[in-house]
Write a structure and sequence with these properties.
The protein contains seven helices and 14 strands. Helix 3 packs across helix 4 and helix 6 packs parallel to helix 7. The strands form two sheets. Strands 6-5-4-3-2-1-14 form a seven-stranded mixed beta sheet. Strands 7-8-9-10-11-12-13 form a seven-stranded mixed beta sheet. The chain is an alpha/beta fold.
């Protein structure tokens, strides 16, 4: 599988980095997007046809889903290449309502997504196919319903693990077990100085999860524009001695 980081900024977009959005491709299949945060709609146009995307949304905080209304405009109203079929959209239970409200013409209206997306709800341990990939959803710890994903090419050639947003949970070990690439959030960077429970990881926790899971390559994501990325890297190295990469927009991985 081919992974392209379209955006990896944490909690909000940065001047040169959209919020969360990760593009996966394999030959002869639709394209899969993991999350679709602010700025991703612009970035994806450099790499794929937005009218063909299957979407898998980890949770419904704005930085992970709020460019979907722009995608709906493209899919419905592009003058020469609108969407010709419904694509899959997997997300938490209230995905259709949440996105429909955000895309509505006014506060008393609702945008029904069913003309362009087949919306399906995630659950812990659910296994499904989207974009030609085999995917397992694993529950994470966050203030809202949230999932991480194990994504595998059907030929068994590689495994990508993606946390979405989460605080520490032992489910991280199942999520990342023996993964070829483990994309792990490290929002608190060097340490959780704010001592906010149940929300995010720091770099050391990301490294610990990679070590305990036996992941082959740790990729740190979801660093806020005001975060200390180097501190996140240094903290991760105290727990994990394998290769560590700090994600940047446009970065590509062959998995």
């Amino acid at each position: 599988m081919e992974l392209t980081v379209l955006g990896c900024s944490g909690s909000l977009c940065a001047p040169d980095n959209p919020a969360s959005g990760y593009l996966l491709k394999r030959a002869g299949t639709p394209t899969l997007m993991l999350d679709f945060g602010p700025g991703v709609m612009g970035a994806v146009q450099r790499h794929a046809d937005p009218a063909t995307l299957d979407l898998v949304i980890s949770h419904l905080h704005a930085d992970h889903c709020l460019d979907i209304p722009g995608l709906l405009v493209w899919r419905r109203y592009h003058p020469t290449a609108p969407s010709t079929q419904r694509n899959l959209l997997f997300g938490p239970e209230d995905t259709a309502t949440h996105v429909g409200d955000a895309s509505a013409d006014h506060s008393k209206n609702f945008d029904d997504l069913s003309d362009t997306f087949d919306v399906r709800h995630l659950s812990h341990g659910m296994k499904f196919t989207a974009g030609g990939f085999d995917i397992e959803a694993i529950e994470m710890v966050h203030p809202c319903e949230a999932y991480g994903f194990r994504v595998q090419d059907p030929d068994g050639s590689g495994v990508l693990a993606y946390t979405g947003d989460t605080a520490w949970t032992d489910n991280l070990i199942d999520l990342a077990r023996d993964a070829d690439v483990f994309m792990c959030e490290a929002t608190w960077c060097g340490s959780n100085d704010a001592n906010v429970p149940g929300m995010h990881l720091d770099g050391a926790e990301a490294g610990r999860a990679a070590r305990l899971a036996g992941a082959k390559h740790l990729v740190l994501i979801h660093i806020p524009p005001y975060g200390d990325a180097e501190a996140a890297m240094a903290a991760a190295r105290t727990e994990y001695d394998g290769p560590i990469t700090l994600a940047t927009p446009g970065m590509e991985f062959n998995i």
